[in-house]
Amino acid sequence: MALQSLHIRRLRVPRKTTAVTSGRQRAQSFLIVATLLYRASHLAVGVLAVVRRPTDQPLPYVGIVLALALSGLTYGAALRRGRFDARHIWADVVVTGCVLPLALIAWGGVSTPPALGWAMLLGGSASAAAAIALDRLHAVAVVALLLLSHFIGYQAVGASSAVIAGHLNSLVSSALMTWVFRWYLLRQGSLLDEANARALAAEAHKARYAERLEHHRALHDTVLATLTTLAAGSVDANAPEVRARCAREAAYLRRLIQQTADEVQHREIGTALEEAVGSVEGLQLRVTAQYHRLPQVPPAVAAALGDAVREALNNVRRHAGTGHAYLTATADPDGRGGALVTVVDRGPGFDPENCTPGLGLRGSVHARMAEVGGRATVDSAPGEGVRVELRWPG
């Protein structure tokens, strides 16, 4: 078979690249957004508290601006990188969570628990971010530092035991719940990544199997057909047409070994059929071909029809004993925009009920047509030749 008439469709398997977000990365991004919303709610409370409590002291205004700036730095960098920077987390914890409340008490004129509440509130979102960004030991250290500084702060403004206990409990709960969410979401992300990896491996295996199957079909219809004919001595091995065909198929084998076979698809059904005819005529089979109102079909369909016709003609040359075949191709008479192709010989025929179809008919004719949504039928009887009908769509 001519190299240009060989159609091997290599299946492409999508590959994961660095641009593809994994399940763990998506989980981490969700956690960043969730803690950002948590911090935003605390900042909103802080802004309202400072605005509604006018004071001559500049420290509350400086404190809320500093908290906004640190939050922007911490969460902005996390959103860009897809993860928190531990240095930003520690800076937020120390400045916003620990120093700010104590500074407001010492130099900001804050002397009551309600006036201090907005600054203490920021410690909850600081502990939540630490539970996500830091390892377990450092996260525990952050929570302990926040508990100590906030306990000292509330004691300094005379808060009741209930207020202190409730606030310290919220600090621990924020960190603990966020850590549980992180563990669960990252675990689910890992399971999703493993499932995707298994699916990709299965798809790759399926693609390799399909490619091998297509190679086997092509080799059966070309190289094996040529070798079988030469071994039978039914053609002159030194004939120019036979030598040219052997050279083309040797080139194909060489390219197949090097894994550089071109992915060529016929654009028109007529071209595909003519190349199939030329392939078998090189082995001295005479083909009378008639084409009428050939339809436009997808390239894959044209390739399948050409390959199926070639194998049907190979069977005529091998089994019919007539040296002559008849090919007819036309638009589907049903008017559905399809194609109808028939290959007929006037050989001895066979009894379909007592004959099992060989690999050529099963794999290279029936299977090829089925893969593109078509159908192949074989009609024969002893003494009446064989008629192979290819119809698309089936």
Would you write up a description of this structure?
With 394 residues, the protein is of the alpha+beta class. The chain is built from eleven helices and five strands, in the order αααααααααβαββαββ. The protein has a five-stranded mixed beta sheet. α1 runs antiparallel to α6 and α2 packs antiparallel against α3. It is rod-shaped.
Secondary structure elements and pairings:
Layout: H1 23-52, H2 59-81, H3 86-107, H4 113-133, H5 136-156, H6 161-221, H7 223-232, H8 240-257, H9 269-281, E1 286-292, H10 299-320, E2 324-331, E3 339-345, H11 359-371, E4 375-380, E5 386-392
Parallel strand pairs: 1-2
Antiparallel strand pairs: 2-3, 3-5, 4-5
Helix pairs in contact: 1-2, 1-4, 1-6, 2-3, 3-4, 3-5, 4-5, 4-6, 5-6, 6-7, 9-10, 10-11
> Helix/strand-derived class?
alpha+beta
| Fraction in beta strands | 5-15%
Estimate percent helicity.
Answer: 55-70%
Largest sheet: 5 strands, mixed
Give the SSE string.
HHHHHHHHHEHEEHEE
Order of adjacent strands in the largest pleated sheet? 1-2-3-5-4
Counted by DSSP, the helix tally is: 11
Question: Poorly predicted ranges (pLDDT <50, ≥5 residues)?
Answer: 1-20, 259-266
- Silhouette: rod-shaped
- Report Rg: 39 Å
- Report the mean per-residue pLDDT as an integer: 82
Number of strands: 5
End-to-end C-alpha gap: 27 Å
